[in-house]
Specification:
- There is one protein chain.
- The chain is an alpha/beta fold.
- Helices cover about 45% and strands about 20% of the residues.
- The chain is built from 9 helices and 9 strands.
- Strands 1, 2, 3, 4, 5, 6, 7, 8 and 9 form a 9-stranded parallel β-sheet that branches.
- Helix 1 crosses helix 2.
- The mean pLDDT is about 95.
- The chain binds pyridoxal-5'-phosphate.
- The site of pyridoxal-5'-phosphate has 13 residues, from strand 9 and helix 9.
Length: about 250
């Protein structure tokens, strides 16, 4: 039996193994697509992980984490910062964690998330972008954001429709204290790989078009797509950021 609050070694080995399995699958998908696996970043989504599991991932040296709720992001970031302070200098423990806000963001939460988030993946309206710009100005920050695009045309999904994305990107480009560095999308929950691939291809085509037509600047380099169930397809279609949770923690 493992007492609460103590590390269960078998559980912790499992996490290391699962991350390794994901990394290997990413490498294989990169080889298929003739891509360099160093161009694909793994963001580890901690929303379903226990404190012990999160600390284990930090101990293993991973330093890009994602949360989809502001409160949870603050809480997890505090936990991780405390852990890093206590274990500074220990082999593998990173100096700093980069937090990704990946979920829908309400305007009244913006000022709370800015001090923590090194990248916000979910900008999908001009009003939200303006709020980020204003709040970042007040806090003396230059916030990095992605434009979330609804490539599946599901009406209940967040994200700007594909047809409106270019115009919104042009508008966001004019705002101060904020840098638009790429696109984010989510494929629908389905076993149909063609449907998933079509969404990722749409996002990549939009990404290429915006860059080609100079609607965005040279800092526009990131394509955030791919989760536990579909990241190999995302890698094949050009993802530079994968957001993976349950494949590691479930
Ligand atoms: C939870 C979440 C993920 C990770 O999903 P898994 O299926 O657990 O890998 C990725 N992106 C967003 C926006 C999420 O909310």
């Amino acid at each position: 039996m493992v007492l609460p609050g103590t590390r269960d070694p078998s559980q912790m080995n499992k996490i290391a193994e699962r991350i390794k399995r994901v990394e290997e699958a990413v490498a294989v998908a990169c080889a298929r697509a003739r891509r360099d696996s160093r161009d694909v970043r793994l963001v580890i989504v901690t929303k379903s992980a226990s404190d012990e599991a999160i600390q284990e991932v930090v101990r293993l040296g991973y330093n890009h984490f994602g949360e989809n709720r502001v409160q949870q992001l603050k809480k997890t970031a505090t936990l991780v910062n405390d852990y890093i302070k206590q274990h500074q200098g220990q082999t593998g423990v990173p100096d700093e964690i980069h937090w990704h806000h990946i979920g829908h963001l309400q305007r009244n939460k913006v000022r709370h998330v800015l001090p923590y988030a090194s990248l916000i993946h979910s900008v999908d309206t001009l009003r939200l972008a303006e709020e980020i710009s204003t709040a970042a100005g007040k806090q003396g920050l230059n916030s990095r954001v992605l434009l979330q695009v609804n490539t599946s045309n599901e009406p209940q999904k967040y994200g700007v429709p594909v047809g409106a994305a270019t115009h919104l990107a042009e508008q966001i480009e004019t705002l101060p204290n904020l840098q638009l560095i790429g696109l984010m999308t989510m494929a629908p929950l389905t076993r149909n790989k063609d449907v998933i691939r079509t969404c990722f291809v749409r996002a990549r085509e939009l990404f290429d078009e915006m860059r080609g037509e100079k609607i965005v600047g040279p800092q526009f380099t990131e394509l955030s797509m791919g989760m536990s169930s579909d990241y190999e397809i995302a890698v094949e279609e050009g993802a530079t950021i994968l957001r993976i949770g349950s494949a590691i923690f479930a």
